[in-house]
Amino acid sequence: MKVFHTVSGLRDDLNKDRLKGLRIGFVPTMGNLHGGHLALIKQARETNDIVVCSIFVNALQFGLNEDWDKYPRTYQGDCDKLRDAGCDYLFHPDDIEMYPNGLDTQSRVICPTMTDVLCGASRPGHFEGVTTVVSKLFNIVQPDEAIFGIKDYQQLAVIRRMAEDLCMPIQISSAPIHREPDGLAMSSRNSYITAEERPLVIVLKDSLAWIAEEIKAGNRDFVGLEGTAKSRIIEAGFKIDYVTICNSKTLDQAADDDLEITILGAMFTESARLIDNLSISL
Ligand code: PAF
Q1: Cα-based torsion angle of the residue sequence 170, 171, 172, 173 in order, rounded to the nearest 10 degrees
Q2: Which one of 52, 77, 97, 192 is at 20 to 30 Å from 33 when CA atoms are compared?
Q3: Which residue CA neighbors atom 5 of ligand 1 most closely?
Q4: What would the pLDDT profile of 227-269 be if each residue is shown by its tens digit?
Q5: 37 is catalytic
């Protein structure tokens, strides 16, 4: 695996690959890689000739009181995992390389409305940081395909919308949620969960799964279902951010006659914010 820290270095090699007609797959990450990320690399490997991964902890997508400084940085271990997974190029820029003009004056990419709800409501500016850095990374790598995990469902929907709205010639693909044996969705932030909380956090996934079963059985009292699921999570000792039943494409509140529904939830443990989701077709 070749490692690049500069835009120009990565571009030089990718240009040569492109001239040979090779198809380029891209997996952007913030590092602290787990099985979910490695599944994205594996998927990229299957449909592309060259697989590029980026590791960049993007300050622009963290709020002032969020965990940018304590976000786990595990570069050496990540390199070993990527090499084993068959990644060809790793792009690992520093802040100056990505934001040479500083963060405050950086041009931004905004995807309105869809980013005001769910995680966007509790993390103002977060998605603007994501769409801006992902656009930059897309311009740097110019991949044929980019792959994102379904665990960050809203992020995936926003990036799909951005690529469509801005006519980006990139296939945006998704990969299923990777789960721990008890069903907890894998996340780089799971390391913040305490040993006491660990057996209990599965309540988030279980509550979303319970809603899905109720809807499949014909229950359309979405507000009631959301309320009951929230109560279960609170009873388990966690603070609710949201539990919402949405139209899978628009992320608007689901309507009675919607056929593609996604149930999304976010809750706070002592020092982690966990998200999960579940999609159903009726
Ligand atoms: O999902 C992530 O890890 C990040 O939001 C991403 C897409 C790499 C942008 O920084």
Answers
A1: -150
A2: 97
A3: 130
A4: 999 999 999 999 999 999 999 988 999 999 999 999 999 999 9
A5: yes
